[in-house]
Amino acid sequence: QHSHFEKVFDIFDSFSSTRHSSSRQKPQQVRGSDLQYDLTLSFEDAILGTTATVEVNRLERCNRCKGTGIEPRTYPMLCPICLGKGRIRQSHGFLGFTQVCPNCDGTGKIAQKACTQCRGESRIPQKRRVSVKIPSDVSEGTNLKVAGEGDSGMYGGLTGDLYIRLHVRPHEFFGRKDNDIWYELPLSITQAALGTIVEVPTFEGKVRIRVPPGTQPDRVFRLSNKGVPISNN
Fold first, then answer.
1. Is the pLDDT of residue 153 over 90?
2. Residue 183 banded pLDDT, cuts 50, 70, 90
3. DSSP string spanning the chain?
4. Do residues 166 and 138 lie in contact, with contact meaning Cβ atoms separated by under 8 Å?
5. How many CA atoms lie within 13 A of 139 on its CB side?
6. Who's near 65: CB < 8 A, 6+ residues apart?
7. Beta pairing partners, 187
8. What average pLDDT does range 126-139 have in this prediction?
9. pLDDT at 18
10. Is the pLDDT assigned to residue 13 strictly greater than 90?
11. Global confidence as pTM
12. CA distance 144 to 132
């Protein structure tokens, strides 16, 4: 058989569990998600840099309710449970307690109507065109961060970021290794044996080089400062 003290603690336990189970949380500010976009560049743009425009699907702040989730020109009304007082009274036998109203979380008011455009979610899906500056000297797999271009936050939360993952299309005849550009020059047996002067392409135009007599296959000719422009130099 319970003592008087145990009965009192039982009352407090039931009071606490009732409040916890029926309480309704207020909308919390939530940061928007980060977005990922895969962008394919030409060989030249990856080396020299460019500006690209990408189209992303993202969640943006609802213009109708300004991100509040509440229908415009409607006003909070008195909570029908506590009648605007923010607290309700509960009785347990000869004991009486007041607690925060679980219907309005103690504010005394509740939203009258959810926004009809976003249905109270504060955001709606939109397509958005984003201009992205691609620096020079990027390569396959480079990730660029575009701050503030991800999903909008919920109920006024911070906006997420957009991450651009770069891919580079192979070039018709150029190759790349680190910051060097490679070009394979076909020669006839006569040209290799007797020597010749040929034109080779670079990103700054064609350059004439002298092939000495007796040139063997796989010999490498180096053209200074005709490779990838390094970002800091």
1. yes
2. very high
3. ---HHHHHHHHHHHHHHHHHHH--PPPPPBPPPPEEEEEEE-HHHHHH-EEEEEEEEEEEE-TTTTTS-B-TT---EE-TTTTTSSEEEEEETTEEEEEE-TTTTTSSEE-S-B-TTTTTSSEEEEEEEEEEEEPSS--TT-EEEETT-SPPPBTTPPP--EEEEEEEPPPSSEEEETTEEEE-----HHHHHH-EEEEEEETTEEEEEEE-TTPPTT-----TT-S---TT-
4. yes
5. 11
6. 71, 72, 115, 117, 118, 122
7. none
8. 92
9. 41
10. no
11. 0.68
12. 9
Give 54's contacts (C-beta < 8 A, 6+ positions apart). Answer: 37, 39, 129, 130, 132, 164
Q: How far does the chain reach from its first CA to its final CA, in angstroms?
A: 87
Classify burial at 109, counting beta carbons within 10 Å of its beta carbon; exposed 0-12, middle 13-18, buried 19 or more: middle
Amino acid identity of residue 198, one-letter, is V
Which of 89, 32, 83, 30 is closest to 56 using CA atoms? 32
Q: Give me the percent of the chain exceeding a pLDDT of 90.
A: 53
Longest dimension (CA), the chain: 116
- Supply the pLDDT for residue 14: 43
Give the dihedral sign, CA 118/68/26/81: negative
pLDDT band at 98 (very low <50, low <70, confident <90, very high): confident
Distances (CA, A) of 57 to 115, 130, 165: 22, 11, 16
11 confidence band (pLDDT: 50, 70, 90)? very low
